Amino acid sequence: MVELGPSREDYYTFTAYNTVVTVNPRGEVVARYRKSHLYYTDEVWAQEGPEGFVAHDVTFDGKPNRLGFNEAVRREIAARDGQVTDESIRTTFAICMDLNPYHFLPPSPTSPMSLVEHVLNTDSRLLILSTAWLTHLSSAALAESIGRPDMDTLSYWFGKLMPLINHDKKTTCVFANRCGEEPGRTVPNVLSEEKEGEGGGEGVRYAGSSWVGFLEHGKVRMGRVMGRAEEGVLVVDTEALAMGGGWVVEFGERG
Length: 255
Fold this sequence. Notes:
Helices cover 18% and strands 30% of the residues. The protein is α+β, with helices and mostly antiparallel strands. The strands form three sheets. It has a seven-stranded mixed sheet. A hairpin with a 5-residue loop joins strand 2 and strand 3 (29-34).
């Protein structure tokens, strides 16, 4: 979403931020995060979030409520089975380009903290990434592989997450990526020699492949991964996933 806030220079002007706002079932705002690492398409309208990466202690309602029961049913279950307690989880929110180094610059002593460094330094147990990650597949190729995840995109994400994957602590990840196609000018790949406007004006296409899973001890355990152009809602029981199952990707010896 786009968030507008008063500018420091002039009360009557506003600064726009690319923002994730999280609300609870009662509609109350429990967390707000403003994107830190802007992509070049952000820079024409948004400013960097002044707070940088932030860890929020987000309280999740007890499991019966998470499963969609209303308050009356929740009280009934609590009376029968014991108190249903809420749970606070240290959570880091991020948006798309935040997963990459700041402006794609190589690491240096003066570089801003990376997303994975922030997750480790703040002992965040949950990482939620909202993204609009692109694919350079043609419309025809995308249509032929709707239900198959984009392995190149997943491999890229896992590469950026490797410090978390190789760590002893378990991090739960929720990656929610856009899917489908938008008309308009083709967005260039800034990491290649492709120029803006190439692609016959087909517009932009997204890689989809949203997933939920764990990172721990050199493995990614995915409870569910969606296809390149699959639209829907992921529902994953992370407590059951922690007991085993899912799709496991292992990365060999930990270095």
